[in-house]
Each structure stands twice: as structure tokens, then as C-alpha cells.
Write a structure and sequence with these properties.
Length: about 375
């Protein structure tokens, strides 16, 4: 499913200034905050959407890129994919913790989940229709095998933060008000690492290019996404990994055009077959089939081949193949061939024009009436 416009998410006009954007963000963030919506998944998704929109529109450079290129302008490209995730944890706990129930429950610190990734996969129409297993290479962050993702050197472990005592937050009192803020010592993790792992330098993850086998189901089309759970970037200090989204783009085909479950193509036929009728071979994704052309077929006539289209990935019946015939004017004629055509044209002399050329007769009758009406 495509993302909503960020301005629409925040409910502001595209020309909104920073003050309007920030005001709209605070209002919506309070409305959909997890501490207020009590586990409502739909509200939690709206909260994430609002946070994502604000992260872009509150940054001058990102906002300029988004205004010019849309969502594509704010997706960092790294070999065909971009980061798409963020830490959607308790970002308002430091301001609204007391209002919505006293901050973090149980003294647990925030885990920074890994970012989601996107991989753009180009496919041929044939592969998209039939399905295919493909191997993709994804540069990403993976859990450090030296410290098992903890960030601490082997044989040691992280310790509770002496400033926040593992809560990840500290409380600042100003008169009657108590405001919670992210702990400056542990950056909200609740723990510190006295002896960091030498391989990952305390982050608990390292950069690596991994190869994944992805099964593309039959019938996918441009815009479809395949979600690989947990195959995104590894989280910090053992936090959960993000997801990988494989975005499908089907390349243009030299013969067929796809429209949902249906395919269409143009089929040239000779002047003689159009006039006399006959059978021609037409291509399908399953091979050639015979198409019977009736006599006196005009150009742009449509023929429908049932069940020769696409079986959608979402189910339903198989689509059709629609062939539009185009009568081809002969070229590079010899003198003898030209003479035969002249004889054919002369053979119609004295006969009613409508008998052989009904469209021309109707057209020129209409032209005559048009000019008669102008001069009459």
C-alpha cells in the first residue's frame, strides 16, 4: 500500500511553516500516543505515521527533497533500497510521561528497533506472471557475532546506568511540574557498556552484505510489495531487527501491455487477409495460437482470447488477451504488383462506391453535407 502524503497526514497545507507543522504534530502525537490509546493497534499505526511525517517536514533539507520528489526524495538509496524505519518508541515520554501515567512502566528502557529496508526489484512480464525465486544482495546492519549483539566485549556485560538506574529517563522538577527526559548518560538505553566489543565498537551490530532468496508469487504487478519480516537492519544492542520490503517493478514488454489481469497487443495483418479473411498466428505468454480473421475486417478491430491473460496474485479468474488488428499498407511494391492494384481499383469503376468502401462513402457524404450547410 502506498504512503499517504505527509502534509495530509499532519493536516496542514503544503505551504505551512515550521510553527504550523510543529503545532499540528504535537496535537496529533498527543491524540494517538500509545500511553493514551492503551494498546489500540490502529492508533499506534497512526502515531507512527505522524512521527514519520514530522521527521521529514521538520527538517529543512528533507522537506525540500520531499516537496520536489515526493516519498522517493527522502528514501536514502543504497544499491536499490532505502531505509524506511525509525524508532517509534516512547518519543513523548519525556514531555507527557506524567500526564499519561508516570512515564515508563516497570523501569524498562527503550529498545531501538532496526530500520526497515526497501529493495527495488525489476522483473520481466513473463517472470511476474509465472512467479520466480530470486537471490538479492542487501547491504545492511546485522547482529555482531563477536558479542551476540550485546555490544559488550566477550566475557563482560553491560551495567545498569548509574544516572537513571536502568529507567532510561531522568525526572527534572521545575516548581510544581515534573518533566521526564531521556537520560543523557545512556541515551535512553538504561545501560552503559564499560568495555565495548572491539568488532562493533559497542553498537551490537556490524555492516554486512547478505544474500537472501526471495520467492516472488505468480501474478505480481508493479507496485506490489513483499514483506520479509526481520530481514531489515539489526537493532542496536540486541534490539529487534526491522523488516525488508521488496518493491516490484515490472519492465515494459516489447509486445504486450498489461492492464490488471488482462493483456493487450497489436497484430498487423495484410491487406489481402483483411479483405478475404484467413488465419494468423498470434503470440501469447504460453506460446502461439491461431486467430481466425473474418473477411472484410477493418483496422483497429478487437479480438478477445479468453483465459490468455494473467492470473492475479490476489486471486480471481484468469484475464484475457485482447488483440487489436492493424491493416498494414503494402510497401516496396514491384511494377507488376502496382499494376495489379491499379487493375483492382479500376474494376470498381461504375459500381456503387458504398458496396466496396462504405466508410469512405459515409465520410465524403458527411463532408458534402457540411459544406452545403455552410453555403446554404
Amino acid at each position: 500500500m502506498s504512503k499517504r502524503d505527509y502534509y495530509e497526514v499532519l493536516g496542514v497545507a503544503k505551504g505551512a511553516d515550521d510553527k504550523e507543522i510543529k503545532k499540528a504534530y504535537k496535537r496529533l502525537a498527543m491524540k494517538y500516543h500509545p500511553d493514551r490509546t492503551q494498546g489500540d493497534k490502529a492508533m499506534e499505526e497512526k502515531f507512527k505515521e505522524v512521527q514519520e511525517a514530522y521527521e521529514v517536514l521538520s527538517d529543512e533539507q528533507k522537506k525540500a527533497a520531499y516537496d520536489q520528489y515526493g516519498h522517493a526524495g527522502v528514501d536514502p538509496n543504497r544499491g536499490g533500497f532505502g531505509g524506511g524505519g525509525a524508532d517509534f518508541g516512547d518519543i513523548f515520554g519525556d514531555v507527557f510521561g506524567d500526564i499519561f501515567g508516570g512515564g515508563r512502566r516497570g523501569g524498562q528502557s527503550r529498545a531501538q528497533r532496526g530500520s526497515d529496508l526497501r529493495y527495488n526489484l525489476e522483473m520481466s512480464l513473463e517472470d511476474a506472471v509465472r512467479g520466480k525465486s530470486v537471490d538479492i544482495k542487501v547491504p545492511t546492519w546485522v547482529s555482531c557475532d563477536s558479542c551476540d549483539g550485546s555490544g559488550a566485549k566477550k566475557g563482560t556485560q553491560a551495567k545498569s546506568c548509574p544516572t537513571c538506574h536502568g529507567a532510561g529517563q531522568v525526572t527534572m522538577r521545575q516548581g510544581f511540574f515534573a518533566v521526564q527526559q531521556t537520560c543523557p548518560t545512556c541515551s535512553g538505553r538504561g545501560k552503559i557498556i564499560p568495555d565495548p566489543c572491539t568488532k562493533c565498537h559497542g553498537e551490537g551490530r556490524v555492516e554486512k552484505t547478505k544474500t537472501l532468496a526471495v520467492k516472488i508469487p505468480a501474478g505480481v504487478d508493479t507496485g506490489d510489495r513483499i514483506r520479509l519480516s526481520g530481514e531489515g537492519e539489526a537493532g542496536m544492542h540486541g534490539a529487534p531487527s526491522g523488516d525488508l520490503y521488496v518493491q516490484v517493478h515490472v519492465k515494459d514488454h516489447p509486445i504486450f501491455v498489461r492492464d490488471g489481469n488482462n493483456l493487450s497487443c497489436e497484430v498487423p495483418i495484410s491487406f489481402s487477409i483483411a479483405a478475404l479473411g484467413g488465419e494468423i498466428d498470434v503470440p501469447t505468454l504460453d506460446g502461439r495460437v491461431k486467430l481466425k480473421i473474418p473477411a472484410e475486417t477493418q483496422t483497429d478491430k478487437m479480438f478477445r482470447l479468453r483465459g490468455k491473460g494473467v492470473q492475479s496474485v490476489r486471486g480471481g479468474g484468469v484475464g484475457d488477451l485482447v488483440c487489436k488488428v492493424v491493416v498494414e499498407t503494402p510497401v516496396n511494391l514491384s511494377d507488376k504488383q502496382k499494376d495489379l492494384l491499379r487493375q483492382l481499383d479500376e474494376s470498381w469503376a461504375g459500381e456503387s462506391e458504398a458496396r466496396h468502401r462504405p466508410k469512405s462513402k459515409g465520410f465524403f457524404d458527411g463532408v458534402k453535407k457540411f459544406f452545403d450547410d455552410l453555403t446554404g
